[in-house]
Design goal:
By secondary structure, the chain is an alpha+beta fold. 19% of the residues lie in helices and 29% in strands. The termini are close together.
Length: 108
């Protein structure tokens, strides 16, 4: 079964009348403890939350339209600043009716 809004965006997330509301405090479960996070921090926390909540059967479940798999960890220098890079593979899945990915078709 596909993930719920709460699984994807946090336990208090809502999607009402086309408005998605995400509580930053819900992302503390994956380590985001900043009350005023940057967009990159929020996006990173959402990737981690989705990976954590993804069922182990996601690769075989056609109702799961987005899967996230942890990849390789690298040590990189960016503008002389050493950083750790954790790669993730994000896959968007839909029924094989055309060669184009349309968000409306994901998980269908």
């Amino acid at each position: 079964m596909g993930l719920s809004i709460e699984d994807r965006f946090g336990s208090n997330a809502t999607l009402v009348n086309g408005v998605l509301q995400v509580q930053v405090s819900d992302l503390a479960v994956v380590g985001l403890n900043n009350a005023d996070p940057t967009p990159d921090q929020v996006f990173g926390a959402l990737v981690l939350l989705n990976e954590a909540n993804q069922p182990t059967s996601a690769a075989d479940d056609p109702t799961v339209g987005v899967t996230i798999e942890k990849g390789f960890k690298n040590f990189v220098d960016r503008d002389s600043t050493p950083q750790i890079e954790q790669q993730y593979t994000v896959s968007l899945l839909k029924s094989d009716t055309s060669g184009t990915i349309d968000p409306d078709d994901i998980g269908a």
